[in-house]
Every structure is written in structure tokens, then in C-alpha cells.
Amino acid sequence: MPGITIGDTVPNLEVETTQGRFKLHDYFADSWTILFSHPGDFTPVCTTELGMMAAYADEFSKRGVKLLGLSCDDIASHNEWIKDVEAYSGGHKVKYPIIADPNREIIKQLNMVDPDEKGPNGQQLPSRALHIVGPNKMVKLSFLYPATTGRNMDEVLRVVDSLQKAAKHKVATPVNWKPNEKVVISPSVNNDQAKEMFPQGFETTDLPSKKGYLRFTQV
Amino acid sequence: MPGITIGDTVPNLEVETTQGRFKLHDYFADSWTILFSHPGDFTPVCTTELGMMAAYADEFSKRGVKLLGLSCDDIASHNEWIKDVEAYSGGHKVKYPIIADPNREIIKQLNMVDPDEKGPNGQQLPSRALHIVGPNKMVKLSFLYPATTGRNMDEVLRVVDSLQKAAKHKVATPVNWKPNEKVVISPSVNNDQAKEMFPQGFETTDLPSKKGYLRFTQV
């Protein structure tokens, strides 16, 4: 039973964090949130990841996205380790809260367990899971990476831009899309509707099937 | 019940594909495999994705990685649609098989359902799920993207390189790592062992905790 997946509402757990106790839904409020776990404090990849998250925090903030970290270490450990993270990241401050889950209850419910890693006493450890939670408190997109593979914060930023564009317009983003590149119009929009919705125009790609479903526009 | 997650063995389902019927484990054999779903044939993002997968196929093949697509359309539809995909991708041939799952059984078992998308008769549709399956037939890493967000094949290639490096050496890849950049030495390796394992040398980053856990090397 792997816990939540995309489309599921994040359970409204009460959590203890480096910035106090709160319920997850109160923290999310009606924002987008990136909820991400790391295997352990004072470990190498995690230090590079949490430092990079601190360095990218302004980019996420500009997009109205909150950050929330999690590992199974306790609050005292998190607070000591943050000094290392901030030193490594060239002084970017860790302004986001980090959950402490020493009982391994939260990582199970949130599908954040790494099957291949164990603590010194055989305890479960978190994977590098990262859920992007929408304003409706449901998981919109997930990365499930193992301890050995550090995440790519540029890819995280790219998919946030994609999700937010699709939430605003009837569009989707094609493979390898980057912000400012063209998007495609949703198949649920017919050509007459598309002319109204996208007065800037759109181009239909000519394909062997002649079905006219691949329509690019700029939003 | 979202189906499989990282660490789970992919069930040995018998599948019907554009290249015949087979059991998943026979296809995987002892290779790495990328098992990926798309919401539907003759839809815009999917056409760009499967075309790009065809364009990147040689890169995956060089790394010994097999490809296996999946949607809920039938084989006749897949075969017609492949003509569009190949035309769009500038002539790159779709050489990998695509599973047909009209009964929606496989997508449920493989955690590939998109909660927000429905077919014309209210049927479930696949998400843009992508599981990287290791030679032991277990899921090592997963991307779970919704229909509106096309995947990034450069990120898929990057994590394949990371997973394969970590399978070969006692290392992990830091945040935003790219091939040929330095990797970090696993915390399970002490400094004496590291000197033997990495005769090319390694550098320990000086951090406030003085714990010496962040050690970079080149492999």
C-alpha cells in the first residue's frame, strides 16, 4: 500500500516542524505547495538539495508556491543541520519549514518511503519524493526518486509553470516544453471555441491522419 | 489503492502490444526498462512525447535501456497513430512496442491512472506515468505527471545516467547533477574505504558541523 498518488487529497495530518506544529491543510491554505522528503539530515545529496531549494525559493514564491520539507530526523537535528545547508548554499537561508517524522507515520501515508534504504537500527527512511499539491489540496504531480538520485529543481520549476498555465487556460505543454515556448490547445476545445479563446491565433500541424488535433498557440 | 510504487516488483502481466503478446518480465529480461503511459492516441501532447521518445531511442539503447509504451487505445488505433507520430518527429521510427489496455486493468495495477481525465464514455484514462524498472524488475524511480504536462526526456535521460552510476559505484548524484559532473560518495563508505574505492581521490566539503559527510569525486 504505497499511500497517496496523483489525484488524492493530502490527508490533513498534524505535523511538527522547524517552524512549529500545524495541520497540513492550514499550511497549504489555498496555495500551491511543494511537499518534499529527504532521506536524512547530515547526508550528502540532501544537503545539496535543500540548499538548492533555498536558492530557488524566490522563484517558487513568485509563483505563489509554498515549500515544505520532511525527514525522519527530529527538530533538534534539523536545526543543527540547517547551518550546514545554509553554509553550503552560499548563504541562502532555509526559510521553509521541515517536518520531523521520527515515528515514520507520515512518510508511509504520503508515499515517501525508500524501499532500498534503512537507518542504523533498520528503520525505514524517506525517499526523495516530491508532490506538487494544488490549491484544492490534491496531488497534481509527483516525482518519486530514490536516495541515490538528487532531484532537478529546474524540472520542478518547469512543471510548476506547466501546471499553472494549464490551470489558467485550456492548454497543455508538449514534451520538453520550456516557459515562453508554445503550448498546445486541449482536445476538449473545438476550432470555433479556440478562435474565441485564443484571439492571438493558433497553428494546426498537418499530420497523415488529417485529424487536426495538434494545435499550437502562445499564452 | 494506487498500484505499484518505487521498490515494488512490476507484476508479470501478459500484455498485447503493437509487436505481439508477451509477458512483461520476458520483455524486461535483465535490462533496464522505461515503462511509460500516455493518455490517448491522436491527442496533442502524446504525439510530441512519443515522437521525442523515438528520437531519443538511440540514447536509451546505448545505455541498454528498453522502452515500452502503453495507452488504453487498441492496437489498430496505435498502428494508425504511429504514422502521425513518425511524421511529426521528422521521420524517427517508433521501434518500441506500445501496450493496448482497453479494459483499464493494467493502468490500475501499474499506478498509471489520471484522476482528472475521462474518456468520451466516462472511462478512466492513463496519466503520463513513467517508471524506470531496474534489471531486478523493480521500480527504481517514477514520474507521475498529469495529462496537461508533457514529460522532459532530458530529465529521463539524466536520471537513467544517475541510476546506472549508483548501481555501479558506491555514489549518488547531487541536486541538478548532469553527466560528467562530480558525484558524492555514499555515507555507507568510510574514508579509508573511499581511499581504496576512489584512487582518483575525493574532496571533503568543510561544513559547520565538521562531520565530513559531503565528499565529491569523479567516476
TrEMBL record, chains A, B:
Q: Which PANTHER family match?
A: MCG48959-RELATED, PEROXIREDOXIN-6
Residue spans crossing the bilayer: none
Keywords attached to this Swiss-Prot or TrEMBL record, sorted alphabetically, are:
Antioxidant, Oxidoreductase, Peroxidase, Redox-active center
Q: By its UniProt entry, which CDD domains does this protein fall under?
A: PRX_1cys
The family database entries (Gene3D superfamilies) matched by this protein are listed as: Antioxidant, Horf6, Chain A, domain2, Glutaredoxin
Where in the numbering of this chain does the Thioredoxin domain appear? 4-165
- Report the family membership: Belongs to the peroxiredoxin family. Prx6 subfamily.
EC number(s) stated in the UniProt entry for this protein: 1.11.1.24
Give the CC-aspect GO terms.
cytosol; mitochondrion
Reactions catalysed, semicolon-separated, are:
a hydroperoxide + [thioredoxin]-dithiol = an alcohol + [thioredoxin]-disulfide + H2O
Active-site residues annotated for this sequence: C46
Question: Tell me, what is one Gene Ontology molecular-function annotation carried by this entry?
Answer: thioredoxin-dependent peroxiredoxin activity
| Top-rank taxon, per record | Eukaryota
**SUPFAM superfamilies reported in the protein's UniProt record:** Thioredoxin-like
What the protein does? Thiol-specific peroxidase that catalyzes the reduction of hydrogen peroxide and organic hydroperoxides to water and alcohols, respectively. Seems to contribute to the inhibition of germination during stress.
Its protein name is Peroxiredoxin
Listed under GO biological process in this entry are: cell redox homeostasis
